[in-house]
Every structure is written in structure tokens, then in C-alpha cells.
Amino acid sequence: MKPLLINGEQITTADAFENINPSDRSDVIDRHALAGAKDTQHAIEAARAAFPGWARSGPQERHDLLKKVSDEIMTRSHELGELLAREEGKTLPEAIGETVRAAQIFDFFAGEALRLNGETLPSVRPNIQIDITREPVGVVGIIAPWNFPIAIPAWKIAPALCYGNTVVFKPAELVPGCAWALADIIQRAGAPPGVINLVTGPGRVVGQTMLDSAEIDAISFTGSVETGRVVAEACVTRMRKFQLEMGGKNPLVVLDDADLEVALDCAINGAFFSTGQRCTASSRLIVTQGIHSRFVEELSARMRALRVGHALAKDTQIGPVVNETQLKQDLDYIGIGVAQGGNLRVGGEVVRRDTEGHFLTPALITDTTNDMRINREEVFGPVASVIRVKDYDEALHVANDTEFGLSSGICTTSLRHASHFKRNAEAGMVMVNLPTAGVDYHVPFGGTKGSSYGAREQGSYAREFFTTVKTAYTLP
Fold first, then answer.
1. Is residue 297 annotated as a catalytic residue, yes or no?
2. Is 279 a catalytic residue?
3. pLDDT tens across 301-358, in order?
């Protein structure tokens, strides 16, 4: 059994839960300790006790810790990538790529630890000096999702530690293996006891205890809209800082003048890679009428050729859906799309392979309108719908007609349309001739409307959440 990691110690519990491979349900990867409310409170108290010392640690100490973490993740990228593929279901190349991304994130924030700066300004009053500095927020609760089990924890934990905060980390129950490996690496890299604490268990116990605690100063959450609202309400009640990354219903606009090959590559990658289980996935394909028929025909043909199978198989392009609950949700939404008038053009079939896994062929639903549920609600699977529109103006209107605003993309060879779309797309991230999914680690990540709340994640913008600003006046 993999224990909890609290205050630099490994803590076993009476109960445990299994980590099961979605590509092969007979493969029990490991068993993990099931934390209770007392265990979670212990972790919070450890983080609180460790905070004063870590907050006053020097930039070199923080840099060295984060660099050691980065180096070990990079050295073990294939091993950790295989673990990630087994427990989450990404194909092995995608899983290794995500692991490398986690290493890059820690390396970036190792550098940021040495780039901490402030300002010294003259006062409007004579002989007074003003110093503006940034200080750590305190104890940060991190609640991470299952779809990026090492990259998302990395882009939350790395800046938290970089800026002098201590961490209580609750991963999703479906992916405890990568979380344990990451926390273990951080501990062995030299994090003082209590600086990083891992508690594995259900949100209704571990997560709720974190939300109820007066000893947690900030919460960084990525997950569903429904849970995000619960997090927000709890944080507002306690007047604590919080950051939410939630759902998306991301459009990919394809105009008549688009390079068809580019548009097809963007659609396949954005909608179906990582089994479509990305908040930035292109779930709405908005296509103008001049290119619509060719686009749908070619896209359908390419989708039929995609190889669905075991995440570790060399020829697999699309891995399994993460679990049976998510598979049922995907199938339900496909049924809803068809019942409301859509045409299941290709895919949407549960398929059998040599191992018992949650295998679903990528689905394309055509002849949809933007008011259908399939285009209003996040499916979070390998399911995309096509909306036919007259021209660019209608495409932009439909793209923005959503309560979400994470990522928005356009395929066009028109500089005028590309420039107008970048300015007018109602999303936190805009892609031109690129998939809506796929971002760099050194620039801000986040959305608008119902997709995100609070400061941006990643890059130097992460300091806005993980630090507070202090203004000090001095009369010499």
C-alpha cells in the first residue's frame, strides 16, 4: 500500500483503495492509503507549522529544490510516463510528453525563484522611501483533476513552493500513482518536513476538510463546474484566496479559405487526442458552408482510421476512457445529440480489445445547432459535434455563444479574419491554425466566463495567485 506523505513521514491507514488501469481492468496498479478527516487535518497542521521557515527560505534553497525535482522527473520520464498511461489511459507517447512537461515546469519555476523582485519608489512626501515586495500567501490547498495527473499538479505545486508557500495536495482518486510519485520526489529532493503533504482520498472527506479548515490560506482547484462552485462558496465564507479552472466547450472555427489539411489536423488533435479528456478540447467544430461537406467527409475518413486500444500498445492513437462512469456519460451525450436531431456520422461505439478496458471510438455528430445540449454542456470525452454556419460573422457569433470561455480556435488563411478573431473571441486563450488544446508552460493559462475564476496559472503570471503584495514606508 502506498502511504500518505505528511510532515516528511509515510503514514499508513486502516483502509485503502485500488488504482485500476482503464486499459485493462484486471491490472491493479497499486493500493493507496485512504485518508480520513483526521489525516487531512494532520497534513494541514504540518503545513502550517512548516510555513514560517519555508516562507523565509532563500531563493537559492528554493531554486535548488525545484531543480532537483525537475531533474529527477526528466530522468525518469519514461518510467513515470508508463505509470501515467497505465492509470489515466493516455497513450504512452502522450504520457511521456506530459511527464516531460512537468519537469519543464519545475525547471521554469526553479529559475523564477532566482528572479524574485520588488520595487523601491520615492514617496510624494519628502524623505520617505517606499518598498513594494511580494510575500507568500501561506498554506495552499491544491485539488487536482485526473486528466493531467502530473502536469497540472506540477503547475500548481511548483509555483506554490517557488514563492515560499507550503502545500496540502489532494489528487483525484482515479490517479493517485503519479501524485504519490511526484510528492515522493519533492520530499526526497530536500523539502523540509511539512512543506509538501499528500493526502489521497475522496473529495467529500479530504476535500471538504480542506475547505472547512481555517488554517488553509488559499485553494487552487481544477475540476468540474459543480465542484468549483462548492469550492468558491466555501472560500468566500472564509474570505480566503481561491483559483478555479473548470469546464470548456471550446469552438474550432473552420472558414472556407482554410488550408484543409491544417484544419483536419487541428480538429483530430484538438477533439480526440488524449481521448478528448481535456478541458481545452475542440468539442464544437463550427464550419462555414463552402468547406463544410469536404471537411466532414475527410474528417470522418480520418476518424475511422484512428486506432483505439491499450494505452501502452505501440500502434494505439486513442487510449481508453478513464473509467466506466465517464464512458457512460460519453454514451449518454451521444444519445442526447442524436435524439435532439444530430446525425452520428462516425464512431461512438464501445469496442472490445484483447484486454477488458473502456474503449470508445471517437464520435462525430453532424447537423447540430448551437442550442442543442451536445453543444451547451461539457462531455469530456472523444466526442465532437459539427455546426454549419453561413460565414465568418455567424461563426464568430456561434463560437462566443457559450457560458464557457477557455480556448477558442480558428483555421483560416485570411490575416483579416485571424486578427479580428484574436481580438473578438471570448476566451482566455486563442489559437490560429493550431489545435485548441496544447499550451506552453511559460505563459499564462486560463479562461473567461464560466471556465475560470481568479488569477491565471503558469508562467510568471502564477505569482499573482501564490503571493500577496506588501507596501512598506520608511522614514530614515
1. no
2. yes
3. 999 999 999 999 999 999 999 999 999 999 999 999 999 999 999 999 999 999 999 9
Q: Which of 45, 245, 378, 457 is catalytic?
A: 245
Q: What is the pLDDT of residues 218-264, one digit of tens each?
A: 999 999 999 999 999 999 999 999 999 999 999 999 999 999 999 99
Query: The dihedral of CA 467, 469, 475, 476: what is its sign?
Result: positive
Please name every residue paired with 429 in a beta bridge, in sequence order, or none if there are none: 407
Cβ atoms of 199 and 36 within 8 Å: the answer is: no
The grid coordinates of residue 360 equal: 470508445
To the nearest 10°, the Cα dihedral for 320, 322, 326, 332?
Answer: -10
Separation CA 473–CA 445 (nearest Å): 34
What fold characterizes domain 250-432? Answer: Aldehyde Dehydrogenase; Chain A, domain 2 (3.40.309)
- Which residues have CB under 8 Å from 214's CB, separation 6+? 238
Dist. CA 177–CA 31, nearest whole Å = 9
d(CA 219, CA 216): 8
CA nearest 157: which of 109, 210, 225, 224?
109
Cα–chain-centroid distance for residue 28? 25
Nearest in space to 325 (alpha carbons), one of 270, 380, 284: 380
Roughly what angle, to the nearest 10 degrees, separates helices 392-400 and 415-424? 20
SS3 (DSSP) at 292: helix
User: Over the range 105-133, which residues count as b (16 or more CB within 10 Å of their CB) and which as e?
Assistant: bbbbbbebbeeeeeeeeeeeeeeeeeeee
Helix (H) or strand (E) run with residue 440 in it: none
Which stretches of 381-421 are assigned E, i.e. beta strand?
Answer: 383-389, 404-405, 407-411
Whether this model's pTM surpasses 0.85: yes
- The Cα-based distances of 344 to 103, 272, 308, 334, 443 in angstroms read 40, 16, 18, 8, 38
CB neighbours (10 Å) of residue 358? Answer: 21
Residue holding cell 530536500? 190
Catalytic residue chosen out of the listed positions 178, 235, 266, 279:
279
Please, what sign has the CA dihedral across residues 36, 38, 42, 44?
positive
Provide the residue ranges of all domains of the chain, joining segments of one domain with +: 4-246+451-474, 250-432
Neighbours of 37 (CB within 10 A): 14
- 468, 137 contact by CB (below 8 A): yes
Helices (H) and strands (E) in the chain, counts: 14, 22
The CATH label, of 2.40.50.140, 3.40.605.10, 3.90.1150.10, 2.60.120.10, for the domain at 4-246+451-474 is 3.40.605.10
